[in-house]
Write a structure and sequence with these properties.
heterodimer; A: 213 residues; mainly alpha; 1% strand; globular; B: 437 residues; alpha+beta; Immunoglobulin-like; Rossmann fold; 3 domains; six-stranded antiparallel beta sheet; six-stranded mixed beta sheet; 29% helix
């Protein structure tokens, strides 16, 4: 049966903008309105430019963090690159999934098995990139991908990433200073430092939450 | 509804931090410990930042009733102790333009409230432009909060769908022609009765009882006898709008876009009603079909909103043939009946012809858009669809001719001024019918 009787209103989507300055009850003539999309087609929100940049930067950070063993003489194998690209791709597509932890664990595993000296500059170079990858995944998980990045959010997390990196570099520096000691003792010392740093952070956080007076 | 749950970021930081330390000890790699410490710190700050209570959030619209083409703002009222970040997103809805385009906004919270970065834009505002009349249901709205260091997340929780009434635009019309046979008591239309209006109709000798201020002194001096000005009375008219909502044909786009037949009918009815109510006429509404609204003749601003509200609630829905046969307009004598119909269904044309036979002045306004295209529910070959649509349009020809034979002029709606010519002709050509009061 041929049906020409329609109710187009129920299926007509629109996602065009009104100007941000639109006051209540403002006539739309003063607003920036784009053309309506065709009736019957619901357009998905495209990813924002910021979301794409964050995701690409995450994968780049993971690649650099994994490839930094090159400074110690261990060239990253193609399997590592492919693994980072594959797992990193899943992680940035679904920042809330365990894929983010898996890809970072993959990089840590490479740093465990790579034939590099105990102390080398590559670790100091890789550290900020791995921290950045973790932080970027966190930022990506805050909002849906079609939401533009908020500069305030970026600034907040850039500062935090910087603080975390400095903490990691401090651990490296302490370890390097104690490099004359046996490796086991060095690791134990670093673990002690990590535990103390964590305890200090917890204490600070609890003290901060105490009501004034 | 929802509670604070650990985020993937917290899980990642905790697990990798612990595993990094274990690997560092097991493999003798101090660099891994350096990698693990920042993650452990992040985990520690995230865990300690868990809020103790859930946020309270409500959304509200600045306006619940708007005209199509106007905009309003949806705001959040929130209180989220311990939360650091909030994001709200609104789903897509038909004929609702949202700013920002993504339909989502985010903000950092300071003390559980949005940071006052923009003085007037607190409450995470989403600006909404309503582009089509009707009862607009906005897209589903969701909101999510994140605690400090992205340790825990509350939501995304649904806030439901808000709805508001969008009245059809009532652009001021410019119907210059008078109503054919006004029968009211006061108003702006020139009556055929003699009265105390401002429109001069003649001069006659002065008689006892005439007002002195109406004496025409120039003529009196010339003739030597007192003469007085005779003027027409001014009366209001009664206009009954009959809107055909038995079906909706064509593509409905929104303000400034393509219009369906019901769009044209509703907007035309709103404009005509607005015009006549502004000049003091009594206007009634009868919706044939969806909703079946019946608004009796009345006047005033409140009545205007009553009619616009009824038009906004109009939905295309067929009516049974029996119901149409029982359709009685209940229009008092002298009422101008304006039937707005695309004439694809002859039933409303029957109602118009019946009203004309009953002695009313009836004008049928053809609300079929010139470039109306059918939107097909079922997949159909375009040539076949075009053929069927052309046949449907050709079917209108006999109906229009029959209406004209029945004394109902048919005019296609072309915006303000559409009715000028036909109403003026009706005023001049028809003899006045006796009115019994």
């Amino acid at each position: 049966m041929i049906r020409l009787r329609t109710r187009a209103r129920a299926s007509a989507p629109t996602r065009e903008s009104a100007a941000a300055s639109a006051g209540p009850g403002t006539a739309l003539g003063a607003l920036e309105m784009g053309p309506l999309p065709s009736v019957g087609r619901v357009r998905e929100h495209p990813w924002s430019r910021g979301a794409i940049v964050v995701r690409v930067a995450t994968i780049l950070c993971l690649l650099i963090g994994g490839s930094a063993t090159w400074f110690g003489g261990a060239a990253p194998p193609p399997l590592l690159i492919l693994g980072i690209l594959a797992l990193g791709g899943i992680a940035v597509l679904r920042p809330e999934s365990p894929a983010g932890a898996v890809v970072l664990l993959f990089v840590l595993w490479w740093w465990t098995v790579a034939d590099v000296p105990t102390w080398q500059v590559g670790a100091a170079i890789a550290l900020p990139f791995l921290v950045a990858a973790h932080v970027l995944l966190t930022v990506a998980s805050l909002t849906p991908p079609f939401v533009p990045l908020d500069p305030d959010v970026l600034r907040l997390w850039a500062g935090r990433a910087g603080r975390l990196t400095v903490a990691g570099w401090a651990v490296l520096a302490v370890g390097w200073a104690a490099s004359g000691a046996p490796v086991g003792w060095t690791i134990a010392g670093l673990a002690l430092i990590a535990s103390l740093a964590t305890a200090l952070a917890l204490t600070q956080a609890y003290l901060k939450d105490e009501p004034a007076g | 509804m929802t509670g604070w749950r650990p985020t993937a970021s917290l899980g990642r930081a905790s697990a990798l931090g612990a595993l990094g330390l274990v690997l560092a000890l097991a493999a003798g790699r101090p660099a891994l410990a350096a990698f693990a410490v920042p993650l452990l710190l992040h985990a520690a700050w995230g865990i300690t930042g868990k809020p103790l209570s859930g946020p309270r959030v409500q959304h509200h619209l600045d306006h619940r009733t708007l005209f199509e083409g106007q905009a309003t703002t949806s705001r959040l009222e929130l209180s989220a102790e311990g939360a650091e970040h909030v994001v709200r997103a609104m789903g897509q809805a038909a004929h609702v333009a949202v700013s920002p385009r993504s339909g989502a906004v985010q903000a950092l919270l300071h003390g559980g409230r949005p940071r006052p970065a923009h003085d007037l834009d607190t409450g995470l505002p989403l600006h909404l432009g309503l582009r089509h009349w009707g009862l607009a249901t906005l897209g589903e709205e969701k909101v999510a909060f994140t605690s400090e260091w992205c340790g825990f997340r509350w939501g995304p929780a649904s806030l439901g769908h808000a709805s508001l009434t969008v009245l059809p635009s009532r652009l001021p019309g410019s119907v210059l022609a008078p109503a054919p046979h006004p029968v009211g008591l006061v108003g702006a239309h020139r009556s055929r009765r003699i009265g105390s209006g401002v429109e001069m109709s003649g001069i006659r000798p002065f008689t006892v009882g005439d007002k002195l201020r109406r004496i025409h002194w120039r003529h009196s001096l010339r003739t030597g006898e007192l003469h007085t000005i005779v003027s027409d009375a001014e009366e209001d008219a009664a206009v009954l709008l009959v809107v055909d909502a038995t079906a909706d044909h064509g593509c409905s786009g929104g303000v400034g876009d393509t219009e369906s037949t019901l769009d044209v009918s509703v907007r035309a009815a709103a404009q005509i009603a607005e015009h006549h109510l502004r000049i003091g006429d009594r206007v009634g509404l009868r919706v044939v079909g969806g909703g079946g609204a019946v608004i009796p003749l009345s006047t005033g601003t409140r009545h205007s909103y009553r009619i616009l509200g009824a038009l906004a609630r109009t939905r295309p829905a067929p009516v049974g043939r029996g119901e149409l046969s029982r359709l009685v307009l209940r229009a008092p004598p002298g009422t101008v009946v304006l039937a707005l119909t695309p004439l694809l269904d002859p039933h409303v044309a029957d109602v118009a012809a019946f009203a004309a036979r009953s002695g009313h002045d009836v004008v049928v306004v053809d609300t079929m858009p010139v470039r109306a295209e059918p939107v097909l529910d079922d997949p159909l070959e375009p040539p076949m669809a075009d053929l069927v649509w052309r046949l449907r349009r050709l079917d209108r020809g006999p109906v229009i001719r029959a209406l004209r034979r029945a004394g109902c002029p048919v005019v296609p709606w072309s915006g303000p001024g559409t009715l000028d010519l036909v109403l003026r002709e009706m005023s001049h050509t028809r003899t006045r019918r006796p009115v019994v009061r």
